[in-house]
Specification:
Number of helices: 7
Oligomer: single chain
Radius of gyration: 17 Å
Order of helices and strands: HHEHEHHEHEH
Helix content: 40-55%
Length: 168
């Protein structure tokens, strides 16, 4: 919530965001000995004002000439699969990120599936998953949050366990 408010009230410092993005990519590459296949941010922060601009600039500078460039997750649910939650997520800068990335030649995922309100149990999740998979085009991302062990204070812990049960 705090990051969302900051993005709405003027955004993040782009110079500081650039440093953080560079550091995270350096750490990823050092650990995996490879460039990332894709780039996204926890709770869709990759599209927030002040983050999206330096993120695209860093990706273009680091990977722009590579044959296999990482692609960006754009947090827009496909038509017919939107609800209030997906509209709020998209309103936090998804269209702006998509435009900046397109103009910079950065690859983007073809839709984000898996957005739901975390309610309804395992059977509802199974129904949603069937619905998402039937409509997901090549290049889409299916977001999920499974966990076989849930920590105290995890706001979506019950949903994590239900997703894990379905996926297992």
């Amino acid at each position: 919530g705090r990051a969302m408010r900051r993005a709405l009230l003027g955004g993040f410092d782009q110079a500081q965001a650039t440093l953080v993005i560079e550091r995270q990519l350096d750490l990823f590459e050092a650990h995996w000995k490879a460039t990332p296949d894709f780039v996204d941010g926890h709770q869709h922060v990759q599209q927030f004002a002040g983050i999206r601009e330096p993120l695209v600039a860093v990706l273009q500078r680091r990977y722009g000439t590579q044959a296999n460039k990482p692609y960006l997750r754009i947090s827009i649910a496909p038509p017919g699969l939107t609800d209030m939650k997906s509209r709020v997520i998209a309103a936090m800068g998804a269209n702006a990120l998509e435009s900046i990335a397109f103009n910079s030649g950065i690859k983007r995922a073809n839709g984000l599936f898996g957005i739901y309100n975390f309610h309804g149990g395992t059977s509802r999740y199974a129904t949603l998953m069937t619905h998402w998979l039937a409509r997901a085009p090549a290049g889409a991302i299916l977001m999920c949050h499974p966990a076989d062990e849930v920590g105290l204070g995890d706001e979506i812990g019950v949903a994590r366990a239900q997703e894990f049960a379905f996926l297992a």
